[in-house]
Amino acid sequence: MQNSSEPVVVYVTYVGTPQSRFDRHYYVTGHLPLVMQAWQQYGLLSVSAFFPAVDQAGTVAICECLFRDDAGLAAAFASVETADVMADIAHFTDLAPLRARTVAL
């Protein structure tokens, strides 16, 4: 079990097809800076984007969000800034984000 004061990783994934609308440029240059600006004050340490090497059905993009700890993660997702982060999704995709928290095995 993860200690509540250890860093927490959340992966946000977008699943679709090569025909799915996903603006990688906006995602990296617009959305991720917005996420960092919104949640850094709550303990977000970094965000990184990953894209598949080959266009195929399945994962279109992954964002790795590293939070300082459980409290920071909870505060970020409960914050008023989260509404702006979620509203911005429509600027780069029609796909629904899927969030998953990592747990050490």
Characterize the structure shown:
The structure is a single chain. The chain has 105 residues and is an alpha+beta fold. It has a single domain (8-101), classed as Alpha-Beta Plaits. Helices cover 30% and strands 29% of the residues. It has three helices and four strands; from the N terminus they run E-H-E-E-H-H-E. It has helices at 24-39, 70-78, 82-88, and strands at 8-16, 44-50, 58-67, 98-101. A four-stranded antiparallel sheet has the order 2-3-1-4. Helix 1 runs antiparallel to helix 3. The longest helix has 16 residues, at 24-39. The model has no long low-confidence stretch (mean pLDDT 95).
> Mean pLDDT, nearest integer?
95
CATH class: Alpha Beta
Q: From N to C, what is the helix and strand string? A: EHEEHHE
Shape: globular
Query: In angstroms, what is the radius of gyration?
Result: 14 Å
Count of runs of 4 or more consecutive helical residues: 3
CATH architectural category: 2-Layer Sandwich
Can you count the beta strands? 4
Largest beta-sheet details: 4 strands, antiparallel
Oligomer: single chain
Sheet with most strands: strand arrangement: 2-3-1-4
Proportion of residues in helical segments: 25-40%
How many domains make up the coordinates? 1
Distance between the termini: 8 Å
CATH topology: Alpha-Beta Plaits
